[in-house]
Design brief:
The complex is a heterodimer of chains A (190) and B (217). Chain A has ten helices and no strands. Chain A is mostly helical and 190 residues long. Chain B has three domains: 49 residues, no CATH class; 60 residues, no CATH class; 85 residues, no CATH class. Helix content of chain B is 51%, strand content 12%. Chain B has ten helices and five strands, in the order H-H-H-H-H-H-H-H-E-H-E-E-E-H-E. In chain B, strands 1-5-4-2-3 form a five-stranded mixed beta sheet, covered by helices on one side. In chain B, helix 9 packs antiparallel against helix 10. The longest helix of chain B has 24 residues. Classes of the chains: A mainly alpha (190), B alpha+beta (217). At the A-B interface, helix 2, helix 3, helix 5, helix 6 and helix 7 of A face helix 2, helix 4, helix 5, helix 6 and strand 3 of B.
């Protein structure tokens, strides 16, 4: 931490190496657009570089980075909604196309040793989950992403979102139930 | 337990975080309520599907693009200056330190070479650069890229589709779905230097094309 606060380049490179996948992953799951997610993840790190002196070490560094990421995501979503509105194009249209591409191009999913029919079913299910997740409201989506995808503790989620424990738990439950309702038609045979 | 209350505690039951008395009440209700059993089963399958999503990895060029962007924002340059050593350090001690560090570095490189691990430290070769003199040609490439669902980054920043590019010297990174290269090529038309074959497909399934605009060159 002291090397980071002294501004040592090697410390920042290590920080990027350690956190790039999780920051990018959170941006991608929130924005559902690869190019926007990469752009935003870079902005997050630029912001971390600029503000590292203000990090008071009252929480984990990773939690602080997540908080910055979450705030950037919400701001970017607001901006994208406004831009889509000005162009009279629903934001979901661009997302659906990108989500389908992302899932099918996923090298990890593609390399699993499975029966081909099962692999296709699995990828279709992944694609459905991502689509339905992208269709949820931001406050519901972020909790499912933080808890069920990133597997953060309730304490970390409270720290990142600034919500009280009871609010996190009740909102997360409503979010999961909403996702379950959306997923119901795709889960019949699983 | 009442039906509505039971519906509120299904997540906690799956996370095994319910206090024993509430858990017993919920389980008693579940034994008699088919609707709550169905909700619980659906919730469980949904969470399994969500938790089974593959981990996402940042694109391979993420760190190098970030470095470029940080340098453009003046962040890396400022940090390098700060690393030049304490103000009070005199020239000879700095030189001595440099000589020792260089010797240690050379020794390390030698050891790595012997272990054939040096390849791990070599950064991925950058994509080929297409040099353009005309802003209009760059605009054509950007529009062709957007038309096939690609992304355009100018000096590391994402450019919104439909924007006008050009003017001063600019480095533009085009990122295209490899499967749509031929379509991109057709939309781009006769831009000098653009090959018929896709230059290189990254592990992310995308083609990366670096274009440098040098007006008047």
């Amino acid at each position: 931490m002291s090397a980071l606060k002294r501004g040592e380049e090697a410390a920042f490179e290590l920080l990027v190496r350690l956190h790039q996948h999780r920051v990018y992953g959170l941006c991608l799951r929130m924005l559902a657009d690869r190019a926007e997610a990469e752009d935003l993840a870079q902005e997050v790190f630029i912001s971390v570089f600029r503000n590292i002196q203000t990090f008071r070490e009252e929480s984990l560094l990773s939690t602080w980075i997540y908080r910055i990421t979450r705030n950037h995501c919400l701001n970017r979503l607001k901006f994208l909604r406004r831009r889509a509105h000005e162009r009279q194009q629903p934001l979901e249209d661009t997302r659906q196309a990108d989500l389908a591409g992302e899932s099918l191009a996923d090298p990890v999913a593609g390399s699993r040793l499975q029966r081909p029919d099962r692999a296709i079913e699995g990828r279709e299910l992944e694609s459905r989950v991502l689509q339905e997740l992208a269709g949820m409201s931001e406050d519901h989506r972020e909790l499912v992403v933080l808890r069920d995808l990133e597997q953060l503790t309730y304490e970390e989620i409270q720290d990142i979102t600034g919500l009280a424990e009871g609010t996190v738990k009740s909102r997360l439950h409503r979010a999961r139930m909403e996702l379950a309702r959306r997923m119901a038609p795709h889960l019949k045979d699983t | 337990m009442e039906h509505d209350t039971a519906q509120l505690h299904l997540s906690e039951l799956l996370e095994e975080s319910l206090p024993p008395e509430l858990k017993a009440g919920l389980e008693a209700h579940l034994a008699t309520c088919a609707e709550c059993r169905d909700s619980l089963a659906l919730l469980e399958r949904t969470l399994r599907a969500v938790r089974g999503l593959p981990r996402v990895e940042a694109p391979p060029q993420f760190a190098s693009r970030l470095r470029r962007r940080a340098a453009q924002a003046g962040l890396l340059a400022a940090r390098r200056r700060r690393r030049q050593g304490p103000a009070g350090m005199n020239f000879s001690s700095t030189m001595a330190l440099a000589v020792v560090l260089a010797a240690v570095g050379a020794l390390l490189v030698l050891v790595l070479l012997m272990q054939k691990q040096i390849a791990l430290l070599v950064e991925e070769a950058p994509p080929p650069v297409l040099q353009l003199a005309q802003p209009a040609a760059l605009q054509t490439l950007a529009e062709a890229s957007w038309a096939v669902g690609g992304a355009v980054r100018a000096d590391g920043r994402l450019v919104p589709p439909g924007s006008a590019l050009g003017g001063a010297s600019l480095e533009v990174d085009l990122e295209l779905p490899a499967a749509r290269w031929a379509e991109f090529r057709r939309a781009a038309g006769a831009v000098a230097g653009l090959t018929r074959e896709a230059p290189r497909v990254g592990p992310d399934g995308l083609v990366h094309l670096l274009v440098a605009l040098r007006p008047g060159s």
